[in-house]
Amino acid sequence: MHIAEEKPTRYLAFAICIALFLAGLVLLAWWPRIGGILALIFGLLTAIGIHDVTQSSRAILRNYPILAHIRFFMESIRPEIRQYLLESDTDEAPFSREQRSLVYQRAKSTSDVRPYGSLINQYKPDHEWVNHSMMATHLAHHDFRVTIGADQCAQPYAASLFNISAMSFGALSANAIRALNQAARKGNFAHDTGEGSISPYHREHGGDLIWEIGTGYFGCRTAKGEFDAQKFIENARLPQVRMIEIKVSQGAKPGHGGILPGSKVTAEIASTRGVPEGEDCISPPRHSAFATPLEMLEFIDKLRELSGGKPVGFKFCFGHPWEFFAICKAMVESGRHPDFIVVDGAEGGTGAAPVEFANHVGTPLQEGLSIVHNTLIGLNLRDKIKLGASGKIVSAYDMARTLALGADWCNSARGFMFSVGCIMAQVCNTGRCPTGVATQDPLRQRALVVPDKAERAFNFHQNTLKALAELTGAAGLTDPNQIRPKHIIRRISSSEVRLMSTVMHGLNPGDLLEGRAKHPLYTIYWPMARSSSFDPA
Question: What is the pTM of this model?
């Protein structure tokens, strides 16, 4: 949006209080009582407003002085039971209140325990839980790591099990990027750049980066929008860049390209992405650097070499089965393989997506991840390729379930957005984010104080992993990567529960290679796949 379009009505109450305070001072000379009352009341409110715009802990107060206190007052008098029973989420709610509350508590390092037991309906279908052990264990640390690229990279990466998912500069403000990257540096975890490339704000604090390369090749593109190897080298060989991620599709709008209108392509965004300032910035729906599965693997090998031996993989939302199977057949035939795959669930979010795509395109994370994990097992490739996962992962239980389904690590976008102040105002696409998280307006993003929010993002990361350690110990395990589908139980109906290992289909090592995979998914779609084309045979 144009900054000139912004109407600073959020300061109107503050301005009125100042005006009435000054009016009270003037009236003291003629009507002392009236003037005194006005000066006293509105002087106090003016002082509150001055405090609001100068304090650093609450971004919404800096952007909405005085007015925001109404919101905080209403929150303070609303009992927790009312929050859950009278303001329960609908099917359309993008995130539950419980999840948001949990993030805020962990970001602030306040207690996340509750009295009176669970408020969740444990007899509702799809309710899940972890079975505990009578021989619970104690994990001495929570800095869980997974090494990516050990077998074919000169520079493998020991990643945290919990990292910041892809969010671009342009979608997020400069201050939000700064806060997240400062947290990543302090907590020694990774910060995915999103497809908007590496901005100066990603580099300011030196946190580990996963550089995501989308269909627009931002940061490594020619004037025509094609891949530029030399520009890629310049960014990929930065010490701060630890892995390269090719974005094939994203869960929020898989198969859909994007456009950033020219009015929003500022000088900073243009410089970061390598596009002309003030012109529409196009992300095509598909890549131009490769057209077949074999070419895709060749491109991955090329990027690994150009980057100096850093791990290279791809992110996608599971779609046509024969397309992923075609990539797998290309791996088997060529002997090439990515260092990692990130499975993005269809429940993943974005600042703006067509409703049809957000609701009805793409495979949810649990199903997509399970298929990818088991297919690699069936081809004896699982030990060579690490799996990441993203899609509404916020709590330690979300992580435990995702690890049980085959992930080696988890990424979270909205969880970290909440930790730096997002209140889900759902105006991301307008540039008028009330907390300065998703806007390019310099006045609005000023409200997000980087050191304070960086500390909260760091706390969220640490406290979530501590909770994962406790959950792992309660199950009698010694490492989160020991969690398996047999440890997760799902309610099918009010009278039936099943182990997730019986709900989700699994393969044994070599099943696909030896023709033992009898599930319809493989008997129907595996023969349709071919390494030479993404089209079905």
Answer: 0.86
